[in-house]
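PROTEIN SPECIFICATION:
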Amino acid sequence: MHNFEYCNPTRLVFGRGTIQRIGPMIASDGIHKVLLVAGGGSIRENGVYQAVVQSLTASGVAAMEEWGVQPNPQLGRARLLVQRARDEQVEAVLAVGGGSVIDMAKCVAAGVTTQDLWDLFDGKALVEHALPVFAVLTMSSTGSEMDPVAFITNEAEHRKCRLESPLLYPRASIVDPLVQTSLPWRQTINGAVSALSHVMATYLVGSFEETALALNEALMRTIIRMVDRLQADHGDYGARANLAWATTLAMNGVSSVGIEDGDWSACRIEAAISAMHPEVAHGAGLAVILPAWTAWMQEGNPGQFQRWARAVWNAGTVDEGVAAMKTALQHWGAPTALGDIGVTAGELRDVAFAALAEGPLGRLRTLTAREVVELLKEVL
């Protein structure tokens, strides 16, 4: 096991009826005015918005609202929200939604104190100050509720880039699994696949970190079982709660403790796709890529891939494990071909070069642009 230092300062409040605590938590930090960032309006339908506003009002916290954050939040929209936050002189940013909404909140929090938000993503500036971020999570997916990472898509350059800073950990996050029972099924699947891919990225490069590997196996098996249960009964609160907590644990750093690094090439390939097709959710793109990617990368650490097949899918070989994963994805109704998410054969070369734009691609195996194209051809 490699040496490590682990710290996650986010205060996580989990369970039924916990949304009402968001106002008092914000007020206890001496904050009186927030920018409330939200998505397309589903939180009005499931009662989350009303609960948040009631809690804020009762705690003496004023909220300036910004709606319409889409999957794969875009730079142009982020710049507008940064200016609104400056104009309104808000003291914090409150995200009410899924991972994309929380990513947008983090971008605003960091962007308010820098000349141009894109400079932070492009490496021209560092996050030296940021507004506090709070979150009410409505869809478990990317772990943004308990990590220091944000993604933004530069729509002009078709680039999806990552920003990480300790200053971007949410001060506090609320996770009430009950509100996720109203999610469309595809969003539940997208979140589960995102979590699986994140765990696999670190697990498959490990060898001797037994504690982390055993935890990762338990997380993957739990995610799979809970999705199966939810497919049978969308209102199964126990399954929903276990899936939500497993997703957070998959993403908040604890699952990779002691593992030196992961192989994020699948995520980078998907990021290239969603930069070109912002309507494609991260989990949807990964559902298409992940089986083929696993088969391609297995020679990089064959013993560990064999352990994954056996421990997670009860399969005798890696190929059988990949087949079992693909069968599960198909059974859940996830997209399993590029055509399912609107990607054409003519775009494969552009996807490959975009994935390689940030540097060498792959840790288990270094992929060339030609190999990325060949990998993607398998899932056309």
